[in-house]
Specification:
The complex is a heterodimer of chains A (425) and B (82). Chain A is α/β, with parallel strands linked by helices. Helices cover 35% and strands 19% of the residues of chain A. In chain A, helix 12 packs across helix 13. The longest helix of chain A has 16 residues. The radius of gyration of chain A is 20 Å and the shape is globular. Classes of the chains: A alpha/beta (425), B mainly alpha (82). At the A-B interface, loops of A face helix 3 of B.
């Protein structure tokens, strides 16, 4: 029999808040974390706004020693801070470095969509092209290897179970949670830190700007720039950060008397095969619908049990297709879809971290009995208009909220869907 | 630059890499950089780059092989300074 998986800890570094307590406040208030970005302006980007977590270097300087800081680029700092928060939130103390035994029962799946592009852009390429190979020192590899984010966290906390990094573009952070849960379900680990981290770097964002998928129409109104489901949506807002959940078998959580934040009831992943309307950059709608239905089936709940949807909803032309897919998967006529909200309306699109930060939001909504507002869509997109009544423009108090579904759809036509349930102690 | 000035600067450069603060508190020329100060061996590459910058010298990779103690580092730097 597969083991039940619960959430016993959470940590977040997001553009609109650091730490889960302030993140919950920010979500309730509909606080935007999008700001004008000087470097993008200096370099002539078309989009001049981004969601960058604030005050992180100071937090990191207080948390980690100088030796470590020299080997931690932005994605490492976000991943490490969120992981330490989740670890403490689950009532564990950071383990001593050195000869202490690792925690053989706890592992990590921490993904990243792009990886250490700040290190590549600022050090590896200029030093290598300049013939200054020695000058790279010893810290370049650990910051550019894809698994750097999970490796860094494992070293900080002394994790001894599987430690790996997944990568599936914008599905990454939520996919990590599904992969980690699978390991706990099988009984291969008691606990897994799971989520994603994405660095803040213009080197990551330039390619998206060139694709014309970043919002370039709201440069003078940053807080209004991320507009999922809006008729005036002009593309997504580049963002960064990390979200981490401590997943744990129910058995282990109960044995140690841990506080349980929520249950991860089910999950599904698939790929639309870049067929049937799907491509490298757009999802095959049939793939999306199958993924949502498979997650509900895995969770053993029907659409009528779902109290809220936290969509992928990035503020591109894909939003109307996504809402159509939710309605089709739920077999919901207009007006019958549960509340559907986009965390990206406040924080932008944190790429490989997005699904994980948004999963943290789902857990907080279930625990706190609310659905956070989806801001900046007062002008609902005409193709979404039939479902407009399902969009919460203001905070929705929902004390009876029992099940929240989170989905993510990534480049490569890959899909992920997670189903969380409120925990009744 | 006197030997004791070089020693002080070497210890200052090593300090952020040191994992054993007790050994650092009683550091001498005989203190072993890896075994006693517990500096991660991979980080020696970065320490050497900092020596080069701080003393405006060049240190060849093979020179580094002879450095085990803090005193070895001071001697190497003194030799390069001429």
């Amino acid at each position: 029999m597969r083991r039940r998986v619960v959430v016993t800890g959470a940590g977040v570094i997001a553009p609109n808040a650091n730490g889960v307590a302030d993140f919950e406040l920010a979500l309730r208030k509909g606080r935007s974390g999008i700001r004008r970005h000087e470097k993008m302006e200096e370099l002539g980007f078309a989009s001049l706004v981004a969601g960058v977590p604030q005050g992180v270097d100071e937090l990191a300087a207080n948390a980690f020693d100088e030796d470590l800081l020299r080997a931690m680029n932005s994605s490492h700092r976000f991943a490490a801070l969120a992981s330490v928060e989740a670890w403490r939130d689950a009532a564990f103390s950071p383990s001593a470095a050195g000869d202490a035994a690792p925690d053989w029962d706890t592992g990590a799946v921490i993904g990243t969509g792009i990886g250490g592009m700040d290190t590549i852009g600022e050090r590896v390429v200029p030093f290598t092209d300049g013939g200054k190979i020695r000058r790279l020192g010893s810290t370049a590899v650990e910051q550019v290897m894809a698994s750097g984010v999970s490796a860094r966290v494992a070293g900080l906390l002394g994790l001894g179970n599987q430690v790996t990094t997944n990568s599936s573009a914008c599905s990454t952070g939520a996919e990590a949670i599904a992969l980690a849960a699978e390991r706990i379900r099988r009984g291969d680990a008691k606990r897994m830190l799971a989520g994603g981290a994405e660095g803040a770097s213009h080197y990551i964002w330039s390619g998206f700007d060139a694709m014309r998928v970043l919002c370039r129409t709201m440069n003078d109104a940053p807080e209004r720039a991320s507009r999922p489901m809006s008729a005036s949506a002009g593309g997504f807002v580049a963002a960064a950060g990390a979200g981490i959940l401590m997943l744990e078998s129910l058995e282990s959580a109960q044995e140690r008397g841990a506080r349980i934040r929520a249950e991860l009831l089910g999950a599904a992943v698939n790929c639309g095969g870049q067929r049937g309307g799907g491509s490298m950059t757009a999802p095959n709608p049939e793939g999306v619908r199958r993924c949502i239905r498979a997650a509900l089936a895995d969770a053993g709940v029907g659409p009528s049990a779902v109290g809220a949807i936290n969509g992928h909803l990035t503020a591109t032309g894909a939003d109307p297709r996504e809402v159509e897919s939710w309605a089709a998967a739920f077999e919901a006529k207009p007006g019958r879809l549960p509340p559907i909200t986009s965390t990206k309306s406040m924080i932008g699109h944190a790429l490989g971290a997005a699904g994980a930060i948004e999963a943290v939001a789902c857990v907080l909504m279930l625990q706190g009995g609310f659905v956070h507002p989806s801001i900046n869509c007062e002008d609902v997109h005409p193709e979404i208009e039939p479902h407009a009544a399902s969009i919460p423009h203001e905070l929705l108090e929902a004390p009876g909220l029992e099940v929240v579904v989170k989905a993510g759809f990534g480049f490569g036509d890959v899909n992920i869907c997670l189903v969380f349930r409120k925990w009744h102690a | 630059m006197t030997q004791s000035e070089i020693f002080d600067r070497v210890v200052k450069i090593l300090t952020p890499y040191v994992k054993n603060q007790e050994a650092l508190a009683s550091v001498s020329e005989k203190t072993h950089i890896l075994d006693e100060l517990k500096v991660n061996s991979a980080r020696l590459v970065d320490v050497v780059l900092e020596f080069e910058d701080a003393f405006d010298i060049e240190i060849a990779d093979e020179d580094v092989d002879s450095v085990e103690t803090v005193g070895n580092a001071v001697e190497l730097i003194q030799a390069k300074l001429g």
